[in-house]
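Hey, I'm writing a tutorial for new members on how sequence and structure tokens pair up, and I'd like a real worked example in the thread rather than a made-up one. If someone can provide the structure for the chain below, I'll link this post from the tutorial.
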Amino acid sequence: MTINRLTWRALVPDTEQYQSLFAQPLSDTENTLEFDALQSRLCYGLSQLCHPRPVSSYMLVKAPEEPDYLKIIAAAAHQHFPAPDQQFGGHYQIDGNKITFQPTDSPAGNFSAAGEVVIADWVESEQLFGCVRHFNGEVSLEPGLVHKANGGILVISIKTLLLQPLLWLRLKQIVANSRFDWLSPDETRPLPVSVPSLPLQLKVILVGERDSLADFQEMEPELASLAVYSEFEENLQIVDEESMENWCKWVRSIAFEASLPSPAPDAWEVLIREAVRYTGDQETLPLCPLWLTRQLKEVAPYCEDNAFTGEEMAAMLEQRAWREGFLPERMQDEILLEQILVETEGERIGQINALSVIEFPGHPRAFGEPSRISCVVHIGDGEFTDVERKAELGGNIHAKGMMIMQAFLMAELQLDQQMPFSASLTFEQSYNEVDGDSASMAELCALISALADVPLYQHIAITSSVDQFGRAQPVGGLNEKIEGFFTLCQQRGLTGKQGVIIPLANVRHLCLNSEVLEAVKNEQFSLWAIDDVTDALPLLTTLPWDGEGKTTLIQAIQERIAQATQQEARHRFPWPLRWLGWFGRN
């Protein structure tokens, strides 16, 4: 049996060991970060692409198709791309309607390029390939991004090419032929003049999310299989002081590039806690430039210097939570006004508080809310009815969790015949689809309570998935779930008995707000981490699941089954022949 009552220190990431690092002056670490330290896989892929004899002229990078990411990838490619010692392209001489091309090593040519790394976010044909203009009898040539990237690298969003297939077909032809041919955008109207082709050498980095990469792979299977592949890693594992230092340098470099304030020594702990809530892991911090820039931009109005304090960061987060908290507050009001029935004191047979995460479309953040699960049993044929599934409100994952929970119970009871009880489980006052298996442990406890006729404490909530052996499995949205139940208990009055049961494997995902921390410190609220359903049952009831020399839940269930079986045998014969059953019992 493993029941760990968690201290407040386990509820947030440990930053004590890094205090000396946080206290370093900004000038010691600002802009000194080696990008390879954060994105070693990506940088190795870029070095392969930039090799004099590359594996392919294409590279696929899994990353969000946002300008910030394209800039970061382009800057990293520029570091690995050797500066060419020659000019690419040349000069077009226009004499009336006669155009000639002259290769040149001089940068003065109107189509000369120095092998740069060029970014193309969303582009149209003229922006990417340039165009031929004919106005008042005069002809002019406009260069495109491919001409600026001649001899270098073009970093482009995959979605741009997927939504404009003709752009991709032409770009692929240019790379394959190492030549740029001037074409008319309208096939029915040829170019007003003949324009000589331009020698063009180009490497292409295609950046996209996983679904865009999948679509590209389906469209170009051979090219995708030969291209260099890598990913922009969104998170950084914090394993030692060096990795934490690299993350701090990354934050400071983003602040420097955007001319935003950097964290003061006492602000790192607050920022890290918010970062852990974003990643969902105490040992993982985000590298997402968009998320980090948002935090720095929002805290900037609160500070007057080039650095923001922990108090200023906390004030910004508190105001953000209040600004975005209208919907969660209204949902809590519904419970407090008893429009949604959730009990937080007393005991009930077959009733338990599970925890859910609510995600409303159009709402910026998920929030937690307790859910009341109930179970009733009656004499029957052993069928376990999932009301949500029957009503077509339960998803496949929820149905799977229900079946796994039932399998565990049947295996533990070791019955040699059909159970004489039927059971019905449901989420009370649930009017939308329910999915996920994070309530399967709660449903199992409610079922055991109903079968054993033993009440469950209502001041304790539980969230956990369960396997066929009864072991607790980790679930998502843990912080929001705990804080949702805590807020309800706090508004009704903390008694010191209330708390939440979570899987032991989920402890590393905890990063709770200051109110929960203070309540746990003052022993007004508790969190327990468990390994098994047999660890949860003694906390929720007055009885253990199994054991020798004492009354247990499994004994109570077996006794009820035996009584029900005897009653069934007693009434098996019609009234005039019930004396036959008497001989069977004696």
